[in-house]
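seq as requested:
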Amino acid sequence: MSVEPVRVVLAGVHGHGRWHLDNLRRLADRGTVRLAGVCDTKPVDAAQLAGFGRPEQASKLAPLIRRTGAELVILATPIHTHAELGTEALRAGAHLLLEKPPAGSFADYTRLSEVVSSTGLACQVGFQSLGSAALPYLRELLAENGLGPVRGIGVAGAWARPAAYFERAPWAGKRRLNGIAVTDGALTNPFAHAIASALWLAGAEEPESLREIDVELYRVNPIEADDTSCVRLRVADGTVITVAVSMCADRRHEPAVVVHGQHGQAELTYTTDEVCLRRPGAPDQVTRHPRTDLLENLVEHIRDGTELLVPLQRTGAFMRVVDAVRRAAEPRPIAPVHLAGRNGGGRVLADIERLTRRSADNLAMFSELEVPWAPAEQVLRAGDREVAAYRWRPDPGLPATVAPRPHLHTVRTLGGVEVSETGPVDHPHHLGVGVAVSDVDGTNFWGGRTYVRGQGPRWLDDHGSQRHLRFTRRESCGFTELLDWVDRDGQTVARERRTVIARRHQASRLPGCWELDFTFRLDAPGRVPLTIRSSHTKGRAGAGYGGFFWRAPASSIRRRVFTAEGDGEDAVNGAAADWVALSGTSPSGRAWTLIFTQSGPDRDRWFARERDYPGIGPGLAWERPLNTGSVTRRIRTVVADGRLDRRTVAALIRRTSER
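struct tokens:
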């Protein structure tokens, strides 16, 4: 019995739509499909439609589907139109082959998923690499423990793109267009197959399967989006995936997905469907695998119920990655000094193919490979303003006596006034804004001299350091980070989880300001609790410092520290106040105010300095040592331009609390 060909409408004929036309022509010759219509904002010339008869052309999708009776729509339109046009096609009664990425944001993906579910129609996503038999082959190998325990999956990709690539359409190279998420970039568009393949190998398809997502974006070309980037994912079972890619290579290098096992490696080249197994003491074993066309698979699903290879619901984890890229900090520009010339008008980044491979081999981010254009620094934005930089890998030249640690510097007001200082002459161990404790189980994590009861401050060989382990998430407004606090011998004394968020303050009728929300949790690494001491607990009166600490610039003049009840260092130091404010004026005459509050059930007394230097922080162990298995503190700091008085500060705190 003959089967009628599936009637198809192709939406988006120019660009990648040309590839779909060629594929449709192949299947039409076999009698599998019939091109019933094409939908595009620009007319399609007859030469492009040769061999298809006279398919109807239109600029509106839903009416075209109804007029032609189309059963299937191929959606090859710009990324930011996928959700709207996909919804339109499904509600008009057509199954959907949707180009990758499925949407520009997770919210759009969710809305489209709900329509797929409510209509009961099929939506296949165009991850052609997932149609390769190489992936089930590798999954079976891993399931049979063919490589031993897997410690991670690394992906490397380096392609060349001319300048015209980023000018091919109004949405190309954009993060957003007319307020709508586009999220076009190296990770989410040309190398989307790389991420999808790695996730599939790791068994991570559902959104909940990803526990951590860390993104770094860079750009060589004068575009809004990234052309060079990397991401590290941590799957729920602990598997680590890193993807490092660039569109700024000297030529095309085939991307590699490298599975690192205890007893060998498996490398998938998804563009050629080849797998290379490497085991110690054995020759490399290379196999090549067939690939199923996703349109053919969808047609078979429509006609006889064949299982879809890439249904929309299996791309949830991938869309979590897309959304993390969307929310990430703006791509960091790479200076021309790091370029190695041009290729077809496109810019070439020196040594990028080797760097992407190093990332895949070491499961490392660019910033962890000591690349000069990828410093260990995270820029924070409050709204549309850059307000702080977080130095998560301290300068290796810092002496051990400063207790090296990640910290924020420089921190600025919205007006651009610097309100932090690092390594000042008066106290070289004061490092911007961060967490520093004078004594944790006998190790000095504050820096400088250690106070010894009955002897006073002494230089001791007892300094520790804080080591960045990894970010569990990074966005333009902040991050969550894991750290180890280690002693002079490198032994872990404590573990920390730190979350820092910058947000624009919207209090009305008050000066422009933003808020730094800083939370840290210190945990004992074993069963024995931590003992935290301050110099005050050892006999140095008033020296209750230790915990969150903000060092302001010593160059500021007309300094003032105050609370709701008191003025000056003597009144504030050791006070149990709801808030503390510190104000000053820069050498150029621009005033600033910092307002500190503590949130949560545990509140500490304030350590405050104003005369010798400006610095504020709640003391974890003011009157007595703190013995604990875990301690959490949250400090919120309003950073304001101008010199605020007590009444204005109180009103600002009220509005902050209400919000």
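The radius of gyration is 29 Å.
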